[in-house]
Amino acid sequence: MEISKTQSGETCVLTLDGRLDTITAPLLQTAMEDAFTSADHTRLDFSAVDYVSSAGLRVLLLGEKKAKAAGKTMTLRNVNAEVMEVFSITGFSDVLTID
């Protein structure tokens, strides 16, 4: 997975490309923690993510909790149908903010 970061004011956009799995989840965790320190709102662009494993779900849940605890927000955007189905089945669609 590749993660690119762009920031405009208090909004940080992390664009993900590839699979979010056991190997790549720590990369996203680090990128989110960095984003939470530099911005009030973090957007995760999932347009190029085609797979999310349980490790990826764990990192997203951890990120949501850390963002809320810090008084910040995290939003997922451009989630494809296959990944959205995973979020729906696991109940993550009720926990995460997905545009």
What does it look like?
This protein has 99 residues and is α/β, with parallel strands linked by helices. The chain has a single domain (2-98), classed as STAS domain (Transcription Regulator spoIIAA, 2-Layer Sandwich), CATH 3.30.750. 44% of the residues lie in helices and 36% in strands. It contains 4 helices and 5 strands, in the order ββαβαβααβ. The protein has helices at residues 25-38, 54-69, 81-90, 92-95; strands at 2-8, 11-20, 41-52, 73-77, 97-98. Strands 1-2-3-4-5 form a 5-stranded mixed sheet. A hairpin with a 2-residue loop joins strand 1 and strand 2. Helix 1 (25-38) runs parallel beside helix 2 (54-69). It is globular. The two termini are 22 Å apart. The model has no long low-confidence stretch (mean pLDDT 97).
As a percent range, the share of helical residues equals 40-55%
- CATH structural class: Alpha Beta
Task: Report the radius of gyration as a whole number of Å.
Answer: 12 Å
Class from helix and strand fractions: alpha/beta
Chart the SSEs and their pairings.
Blueprint (H helix, E strand, L loop, with lengths): L1 E7 L2 E10 L4 H14 L2 E12 L1 H16 L3 E5 L3 H10 L1 H4 L1 E2 L1
Parallel strand pairs: 2-3, 3-4, 4-5
Antiparallel strand pairs: 1-2
Helix pairs in contact: 1-2
Describe this protein with a few key phrases:
alpha/beta, 99 residues, Transcription Regulator spoIIAA
Short description:
This protein is α/β, with parallel strands linked by helices and about 100 residues long. It has helices at about 25-40, 55-70, 80-90, 90-95, and strands at about 1-10, 10-20, 40-50, 75, 95-99.
